[in-house]
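User: Can you predict the 3D structure of Glycosyltransferase 61 catalytic domain-containing protein? Sequence below.
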Amino acid sequence: MGYEMHLIKSPHRMESRKLGLALLVGFCIGVVTSFISITLSTAEQQFSLADGARANPSPEINLHPHISGEKERLQGRSATGVIRMKQTSSSTNYSAHSTGQTKDGAVELASGKETEEANHGEHADERVQHTTQKQEAIESKPPGIADRFNEHIGFERGEATKAACDLSNPRTDVCELHGDVRIHGKSSSVVLVSADRQPRNPERRQSWQIKPYARKFDKAAMAHIQQVSVRSSNGLGDDVPRCTTNHSVPAVVFAIGGYSGNYYHDFTDVLVPLFITSRRFDGEVQLVIGTTKLWWISKYEPILRKLSRYDIVYSGSDDRVHCYPHAIIGLHSHKAMSIDPARAPNGYSMVDFTRFMRSTYSLGRDSPIRLGDDGGRKPRLLLIPRKGTRRFTNFQEIVGVVEESGFEVVVAEAKMGSKVAEVARVVNSCDVMMGVHGAGLTNFVFLPTGAVIIQVVPFGNLENISRSCFGYSSEDAKLHYLEYSIREEESSLIEQYPRDHPVFKDPKSIHRKGWNKMGEVYLDKQNVKLDVNRFRPLLLKARQLLHP
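Assistant: Sure. Here are the predicted structure tokens for Glycosyltransferase 61 catalytic domain-containing protein:
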């Protein structure tokens, strides 16, 4: 009994002690819980305010000097101008959001389809299906960088890494890279190294294969053009070459191949596209050229030196790694032997190109003679005789009718080894240039603005080809373009084929056999006996165009 009573009394004393301890612990827990609740409430308010600031940026914030005052564009109306800030535990990350389709940071920019006039076979080959391709862009930006894309000058940005490759143009493929660009000429490789040096999704490390010659639609011309490998890298692995030569100016990478050596193709495939691509840098650019044709470089050296103040880098044999802040791989090209000002940097046009050519070769005449204000001088007409195919068989008769029409005749044709400067001076001294369709008419680029060009079109439904080569382009250069299409009776083909042959009755059937067959018949085997009486009115019209 005493033992049982002891056991009953002992638990009562233990309950009192535990109750006091429990009350003390409960009070402490309540205090801690209240403190945590207050802290969490304050944090939520701060994050709410931060989200509100991101959704409604302050108008005083200027992320980039080029977009000051463009608040609407920064709020989502531009594909590249929206900057969103994401908080992490240790850093602040910036990412550009596009109104277009995105996938793992890769941005696709749609580009339009371009049409092209027939030009030495271009009308057939250019119809390949390039219209489904799109301009691709990748980006990597360090904190605090905003940028925007300008189709005329590429990307306007600060210390950002940016690549844009346009594969949609049927004439050419071009990649424009900004940032840490490394070029190893001997291996024909170009690497754009990311500025942030952060591991990224492998899908963002993209690559392109570019043949930097502006005649993409022509398989024969492109067959021997060295392909350039262009890729992006985060720079963390051992796949990035180390710089051995650093440059502070941009680079333009292109090839001299294809039909280079043909005077017309030298201009339409290389020199005009090179002007479009590099002239905006006003000489502060380096040319990286893939070629073994050093004679070509020598021939056009004055033009190349006018476009760049720096030594040429010959990529095929150069084992150095050249590093640039900006590089363009490939040459922009708009149409045959011409420029579209709406698509060219700074609105450049063929008038600017011909003015550039006159400046390069120090040509003195910017405008032709103006009859009535000339003191009785005759206008000078340059007659291109052609020594090979498509030559005039009654040349002296033509000279006579030209002189009778009131012109001073100048006879000249560039020969193998002729210096461009010498030809340019002769052409620039004339007011009218006349010749059968052929590369010699390329010299219209040296004529004074407002001069006249007369193209004699051989028989065989060649009007579209002839106009696409020299008609539209000379008009773009603000020259007066006149065209004379010969008849069957004026063609030497009447001595080779019966008059009921498809060559005369159905020229289109000859065209359908392909460029080689068409060229063999109408370009390689045809000479011209001009009907001077039928041609005379065109000479009179040329004179009229020289009146003020």
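The chain has a mean pLDDT of 78. The first helix runs from residue 2 to 55.
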